[in-house]
Task: structure prediction
Amino acid sequence: MSQEQAWEVVIGLEVHCQLLTKTKIFSGASTTYGAEPNTQADAVTLGLPGVLPVLNGEALRMAVKFGLSVDAKIAERCVFARKHYFYPDLPKGYQISQYELPIVEHGHLDIELDGGVTKRIGITRAHLEEDAGKSLHEAFHGQTGIDLNRAGTPLIEIVSEPDIRSAAEAVAYLKKLHQLVVYLDVCDGNMQEGSFRCDANVSVRRGPNAPFGTRTETKNINSFRYVEKAIEYEIERQIDVIESGGKIVQETRLFNPDTGETRSMRSKENANDYRYFPDPDLLPVVVTKEDIEAIRKTMPELPEAMRDRFIVQYGLSKYDADVLTAERALADYYETVVKSSGADGKTCANWITTDLLGALNKIGKDISTSPISTDMLSGMLKRIVDKTISGKIAKEVFEAMLAGEGDADTIIKAKGLVQITDESAIIKAIEDVMAKNPAQLADYRSGKDKLFGFFVGQAMKATQGKANPDTLNRLLKEKLAG
Amino acid sequence: MHHLSIRELSDGLRSKKFSSKELTQHFLKRIDRLDPQLNSLVTVTAARALRQADAADARLAKGEAGALLGIPVIQKDIFCTLGVRTSCASQMLDRFIAPYDATIVQKLDAAGMVMLGKANMDEFAMGSSNETSWYGPVKNPWDVTRVPGGSSGGSVAAVAAALAPVATATDTGGSIRQPASLTNLTGIKPTYGRVSRFGMIAFASSLDQAGVVARSAEDAAVVLREMSGFDPRDSTSVEKPVDDYVAGLSQSIKGLKIGVPKEYFAEGLAPGARALVEAAIQKFKDLGAVIKEISLPNSPLSVPTYYVVAPAEASSNLARLDGVRYGHRAEGVKSLEDLYKKSRGEGFGAEVQRRIMVGTYVLSHGYYDAYYLKAQKVRRLICDDFKAAFKDVDVILGPTATDVAFKLGTNADDPVAMYLNDIYTIAANLAGIPAMSLPCGFVDGLPVGLQLMGNYFEEGRLLNVAHQYQLATDFHKQSPKEFA
Result:
């Protein structure tokens, strides 16, 4: 036993990613989430006799876009295949998918691990397919309700190589992939609504040179935290089984978020024979080099490129740039504010990463639902730049904007927060303070420099904090010097 | 009135000799009186027909002059018709009211045709005798103890008995041509992709093609011209302008090179039929055509190839008929699996079940390569045979069926013997080329057809060749005496 090597975990992930097309992959029915059941099921979605699928070109373009973003090979010719199984939420008795010739093959994604180490995860393939409908088991006593609104929604299934070695790596990969598809604007990334969901293939083996162990597939995990928990549970379970003399059975398992456990759904013996064959209703799809180049021109800037640019262009630290580019919406927010406010990049970054994200976190909102719009924030920053308000007063303005009291100018006016730059007014305040505090003045003049701060505070107080700090400092120094 | 050609009917309508309503009533009466002997229709849509006839008369009164305006037609019950039962002659869809129109139904409706009803057929178009219909067999008007052929048996029986001037049909392995041959009609299956398949209930998607059965090449040409054309709702339909098949009919066929494949005259062809096809070849020589013997070496492989590809696709296409959303749903089921098994077990007839099982088998893990993939390779060889042949000849001529119509029940216990009915017709489906059957004589009072096959999108040429033959012969003008 002592000779035995430590366990190595081998993980491969399959991610189903709903594409952001307006209509379904093979019909004109809408894909909007949350409609009344079966109101978005047209004749094609219902699989009525005689209907035929017609490929949505936008879905194809989105798949190509994804392929280009992971440096993959885009198939010149890809083929749709029928995958057969019977289930009430699968109207045709088969799912139109891709089997032997997928649109995307041989890509990769680099993930960052703790300590700044980069690891490359291979992407075996990504293929286009249609989503199934939903079976609703609750709300129907002893019956199952079928909602076919989701049926026919375009998906890309992104299959990784078994390159992942821990639950943490799996989460890092998923987050990176999630960030990427949202940046590409091919997926809304909403995991709660099932727009981005993951199946995890997990096995364990004795060290990196041993053959792969038998794997299990845990289906439909819909949050990063659950992925981590499901994988960790599965690793522990498999090691336990093997160490107590058992064998891992190749099977499909389901994760129960309430218990944090996985349980067997069906074994390999009961697996469906999907009887794949090329769909005769759809011709092979030919993607020319020109098509690919045209799509390449529509590619947005990707997260890493954007981060590097932010560092150079706006003088940000890598940390700030990472935070700001974590989400496409946040990066766009930042860049809009920098450009429209005229404030320097670092100042804008501080306001957004510290004040805004902190506040949003507190009120449970995200950047896309922020009560402070880019216009509002840059309106406030402009007033700092033109010295109407000080940075300190700006905090008050920011709080007021957050509380819904209007934009910066309205608040500044309503609260009388305009900064005092009139030197005579500031001098008057300084003279008052000096007159009221003769002892401190004497101490200062006898060498207690530290009391300078005391006078700044008092003078600020006397101007209700509205004195321009630079002017105040300069004038105070002159006056105190006597 | 019921023996007039479409052109004559159209002339009569425009010159007000009769109205579309009178014409429609005339055919409806014939259906009422004669169809009980034939069982060619599963649904008669009299009220809908009279509404369409009134609308056509209104358009005629305004001076509209479409070639099909006001002309009655029968639709094979494989085409979805909005608000009308579309059964595919299966218990599975016995109560299925289609909520939309097939593209060809829309097109013929828009042209002003009047749909009299929906034609009986083999269940899901699987059969060569029209004996697999849930609604019972169709009888051949030339001899009601015999089959009309299949699967478009209802379409041909109705037109042969002059219950309608023309009918739509579909052809997956010969389902237009073989029945046309057995009932003395002219039937054409165009190039795969020429006519939209949208709304046509799929049997074998890569082989299915809609067409028409009529009493002459001219009638077929005028209807096919209207049915054809690209349909954005069918990815396999071809974006290519439609030739004016009617305008092309009058071209001379002097110097036309006709290929006669030796494989089509081997063992299995009845002597009477062979003699008539050979006489037709002589007739074409007389008309100035050049006859050339050719070889289609892979044609003996077409039946086995077809009986892998077609059931494979059928098993998949019919998977949607699961009793969940529409169609037959079994009573008293205990589980989901039970629901599927019972609904499908009850809803499908024996031949359909046989083909679903064969198709499921050939697509199964471990058998796919040996059957389906192999069949697709042979299919390519069969295509290549035709491509090579059409380098040397303009059209290919041979028999359509091995013999005249057989007696009802003949092949009831022998599916393979039944499958061999399609031996001459299947290759055109596998290759996707246009092909047609036209009358070339009688053996003991029973009709025999000859088959013409053309290169891709040359249905116009086929119709032209057939029309020239029909100008010189009168076989197609004969009609069954009992249904005069």
Summary: Chain A has three domains: 7-294, 301-415, 423-481. The longest helix of chain A spans residues 224-243.
